[in-house]
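Recall from the previous lesson that a structure prediction takes nothing but the amino acid sequence as input. Here we apply that procedure to Coatomer subunit epsilon from Rhynchospora pubera. The sequence below is the only information supplied.
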Amino acid sequence: MAAPDLLFGLRNNFYLGAYQAAINNSEIPNLTLNPSSDDALERDSLVYRSYIALGSYQLVINEIHSSAPTPLQAVKLLALYLSTPHHKESVISSLKDLLADAAIATNPTLRLIAGTIFLHEQDYNEALKYTHPGGTLDLHALNVQIFIKMNRSDHAEKQLKIMQQIDEDHTLTQLANAWVDIAVGGSKIQEAYLIFQDFSEKYPMTCLVLNGKAVCCMLMGNFDEAESLLIEALNKDAKDPETLANLVVCSLHFGKSASRFLNQLKLSHPEHTLVKRMASAEESFERAIQSIA
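The prediction returns the following tokens.
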């Protein structure tokens, strides 16, 4: 009989965006008795990544010391990268130093964090250099996201098939399935919606699940339902970037003012893709006006 997966609940909460629940339920007796085990280290990595997802970067930076194991050092670099935009170059330099060490370069968490940071940098080829070999569901799921960003849904589908061979029913595999369905579009959107609906029936509702359903609704033209789902998500977390971004899109579709949601997004998440695109569009518009004047 296989040993029970002590981290199943913690992983599930993290993957579905229930970050505070992941933190609150991370005290697992068997791991507390053996704090140096691989499971305990993965638990700590997931807890700190949950704090990062909640924006508590400084807590992570303060608590992870220079003597911590490689996976936690990598997580600390992610917190530093996200908390100090003007120090990005030094963080990436430190990350590359870790990756250059043959003794630790293959560590799955280090490769995952490297892929995540280079995905933020939109340097997809560099991200794939570390993630493409796969080896874990997390790495394959990140590959799916990277290929979707590259508009290569064909490669994303290949990564999904690998995940399905490993564990078709795993939460991360189901999420990746939904991402690919949304990227492919057409009749697949309904299938993606059903995946998020299944999550909402099995687990507590999160912003991630609500936004997943809302995006599917918008793509199927059901903007009323999308708006309702996004308002529910906003009530759960008034600063969630994806909720605010999707509410901007939804409001514009209805002909409503999107300025409040956009201003909230600018204040809370100035590095968000939508904020950068809007700024770029405004600059282009201003240049066009000046060239005509």
